[in-house]
Amino acid sequence: MTTVLETIRGGLIASCQAASPDSPFRDPAAMRLMVEAVRVGGAVAARVESIAHVRAARDCGLPLVGLVKRASAGSDVYITPTVADVRALIAAGAAIVAADGTVRPREGARPSPNSWTPPTPRAPCSWPMWTASRPGSTRPAAAPTS
């Protein structure tokens, strides 16, 4: 069985996002067409912003890297700021979730010394890489080691 990471290794991951609030690509149906277009153009995956857009494009034949962009009071974290966002993106059909991997405070999060380890040359990032290795999976997959 081929993993998502093996499928996308070495290929183009196209960013399919509405650039502004008034963009015609804010419509999930239009976003689905954009994802289909990058698949036809040879992309191996699409980076898609918003749960609605992931849901609309989930059966286009490409793995989706899902993310949520949201400003939160009391936090500078903007990209997929909560675990609830991660779970919602996976439930919507994201194969991989892009998330802020910094130690900055997060909305509704309590500091925990075990929740994140700063990167080192030997271990570049210990933030869990969330992948949906099978439909319905909400468990973090092990990040690849170098």
UniProtKB/TrEMBL annotation:
Q: What is this protein called?
A: N-acylglucosamine-6-phosphate 2-epimerase
Q: What does this protein do?
A: Converts N-acetylmannosamine-6-phosphate (ManNAc-6-P) to N-acetylglucosamine-6-phosphate (GlcNAc-6-P).
Where do the TM regions start and end?
none
Which residues lie within the region annotated Disordered?
Answer: 104-146
UniProt KW keywords: Carbohydrate metabolism, Isomerase
| Broad enzyme group | isomerase
Q: Which family does it belong to?
A: Belongs to the NanE family.
Query: What is the organism of origin for this protein?
Result: Pseudolysinimonas kribbensis
Q: Which InterPro entries match?
A: Aldolase_TIM (IPR013785), NanE (IPR007260), RibuloseP-bd_barrel (IPR011060)
The protein's annotated pathway: Amino-sugar metabolism; N-acetylneuraminate degradation; D-fructose 6-phosphate from N-acetylneuraminate: step 3/5
Entry-linked Gene3D superfamilies? Aldolase class I (3.20.20.70)
